[in-house]
Amino acid sequence: MKVALASDHGGMNLKKEIAEVLDELEIAYEDFGCDCEGSVDYPDYALPVAKKVAAGEFDRGILICGTGIGMSIAANKVKGIRCALVHDTFSAKATREHNNTNMLSMGERVIGPGLAREIAKIWLTAEFEGGRHQTRIGKIATYESTL
Fold it and tell me: Phi/psi at 30 (nearest 5 deg)?
């Protein structure tokens, strides 16, 4: 597995925590920024990462901003992306098992580093169940193909 990782200025500290989780799990990743404390625009980081995941250059992507909302909205504009905004462990597992999400978004100002690390571990290790869930994802893909 290869993961694309990015944040805006509001998620930089949590991004470092998630990078440590990726290292611990021995998952290859690339950090797409940001590495500054000054204000930046989240679409400038979310969209390039989402495009790389959609193109198959990365298996999954993790985005972090202050709330996770902006990053998830931007990522979900890219065809083929299923980015979930997650702030609890149950949703982290369910979004992989039922929705086969390929991107995760979290908010540094919403959750602490311990919970974020646990969410990332669960999301990175949970497997898609397929079956009836694949049918539902197929309906989304069919709709996307008409856009």
Answer: -130, 135
Q: Is 98 a catalytic residue?
A: yes
> Which is the catalytic residue, given 65, 83, 87, 133?
65
- Is the overall model pTM greater than 0.90, yes or no? yes
User: Comparing C-alpha atoms, which of 101, 106, 143, 145 is closest to residue 126?
Assistant: 101
pLDDT digits (tens, 9 = 90+) for 69-122: 999 999 999 999 999 999 999 999 999 999 999 999 999 999 999 999 999 999
Please state the φ and ψ torsions of residue 130, each to the nearest 5 degrees.
70, -145
65 is catalytic: yes
Count of all residues that appear for the chain in the document: 147
